[in-house]
TrEMBL record:
This is SUKH-4 family immunity protein. Pfam families: SUKH-4 (PF14435). It comes from Amycolatopsis mongoliensis. InterPro entries: SUKH-4.
Length: 112
């Protein structure tokens, strides 16, 4: 399977998922980093394997959250645990509170 490519600031980016006109999830061919492209590029994970591991952590936490809907403290703890686990996989992925996984795990803590 051939993935479409885009160029941005001299980078060749392979498109994994695209929301036309909004953003795309891409991999930098040179570095292997997984990025969000939305006019600029923002780091998601340092590698595709770290992305897969981080996604698995998130999916597991989402499943747990379904059973915690009425327990705000448990939801918050679930989000914090997902953040810690993601940090252990790729600290750069959550180094800024506005990065993809930092936002996703925070939202888990709110039951979103």
């Amino acid at each position: 399977m051939t993935y479409p490519e885009r160029s941005h600031d001299g980078r060749t980016l392979v498109v994994l998922a695209d929301d036309p006109g909004v953003e795309a999830l891409v991999v930098d061919r040179a570095t292997g980093e997984v990025l969000v492209l939305d006019g600029s590029v923002t780091l998601v994970n340092r590698s595709l394997s770290q992305f897969a591991e981080s996604a698995a952590v998130y999916v597991a936490a989402r499943r747990r959250a379904k059973y915690l809907e009425e327990d705000d403290e448990a939801l918050e703890a679930n989000g914090e645990e997902a953040l810690r686990s993601t940090r252990a996989i790729d600290a750069d992925a959550v180094a800024d509170e506005n990065r993809f996984w930092a936002v996703a795990t925070e939202e888990l803590g709110y039951g979103m």
